[in-house]
Structure formats: C-alpha cells, structure tokens
Automatic annotation (TrEMBL):
Its main location: membrane. GO terms for molecular function: SNARE binding. The lineage of its organism: Eukaryota, Metazoa, Chordata, Craniata, Vertebrata. Belongs to the SNAPIN family. It comes from the Eukaryota. This is SNARE-associated protein Snapin. It comes from Oryzias javanicus (Javanese ricefish). The keyword Cytoplasm applies. Component of the BLOC-1 complex, a complex that is required for normal biogenesis of lysosome-related organelles (LRO), such as platelet dense granules and melanosomes. In concert with the AP-3 complex, the BLOC-1 complex is required to target membrane protein cargos into vesicles assembled at cell bodies for delivery into neurites and nerve terminals. The BLOC-1 complex, in association with SNARE proteins, is also proposed to be involved in neurite extension. Plays a role in intracellular vesicle trafficking and synaptic vesicle recycling. Keywords: Coiled coil, Cytoplasm, Cytoplasmic vesicle, Membrane, Synapse. One of its GO terms (cellular component) is synaptic vesicle membrane.
C-alpha cells in the first residue's frame, strides 16, 4: 500500500511538471511563430533592397560611361556595392536565425505532442473540452 501511494505521488509530481512544461511550450510557440514571420518579412525586404542597390549601381555606371563631362562616380558605385555586401551579410544572418527558429518551433511542437501523448497514456490528461455533468 505504501509503495502504491509513493508511485501515485511520483506520477502526480511528474504530471504537474509535464503540465507546466506543456503550458510553457504553448506560451512560447506563438512568439516563435510571430518572430519567424517577422524575420521572413525582413529577409524579403533585404532582397528587394539588394535588387535596388544593384539597379542603382548599374545605372550609375551607365551614366558615368555616357557623360560628356568627366564625373567620377566610381567612389559612389563602390559605396553602393559595399552597402550591397552588408545587406547580403545581414540577409545571411537572418536566414540562419530563421532556420534556428524553424528548428526550435519544430522541436517545441514535437515536445508538446510527446508530452501530451505521455499524459494521455498515463490517464492524467484528458481532452481540454469542458466535462459534461
């Protein structure tokens, strides 16, 4: 009888931890998804900015070639290309961060499903729908 009560106490303690962990995972999942959407949006803006920089640099080179008055636009083209390089670097950093977020989101979903299955199997956790009287 004492062994049975001890095992019930262990199940209740571990199920309390599981419920807390599941609550934390449920709390973090929307934040991770929202952050992932924002990172995706910034990456799209970075690609668009890079394209504009490329077009501007090309246009400056074309203007420089067709100018009758010698105007040295090379320093400006170099500055634009340097800015483009930085945009590409930031885009790569964002891409890596987004990939980490996707993996984290996947792990959160997997862990939530695992814990829910464990709780349902132990009989501690039932469906979240209100119980009928």
């Amino acid at each position: 009888m004492v062994t049975n009560m001890a095992s019930v106490a262990v199940v209740e303690a571990s199920s309390g931890k599981d419920v807390l962990a599941e609550g934390l995972l449920d709390l973090l999942k929307p934040a991770i998804q929202q952050l992932d959407l924002h990172v995706h949006s910034v990456r799209e803006s970075q690609v668009e900015l890079r394209e504009h920089i490329d077009n501007l640099a090309t246009e400056l080179c074309r203007i420089n070639e067709h100018q009758k008055v010698t105007l040295d636009l090379d320093p400006y083209v170099k500055k634009l290309l340097n800015a483009r390089r930085r945009v590409v670097l930031v885009n790569n950093i964002l891409q890596n961060a987004q990939e980490r977020l996707r993996r984290l989101n996947h792990n959160v979903a997997k862990e939530t499903a695992r814990r829910k299955t464990m709780l349902e199997a132990s009989g501690v956790f039932t469906s979240r729908s209100p119980s009928k009287p």
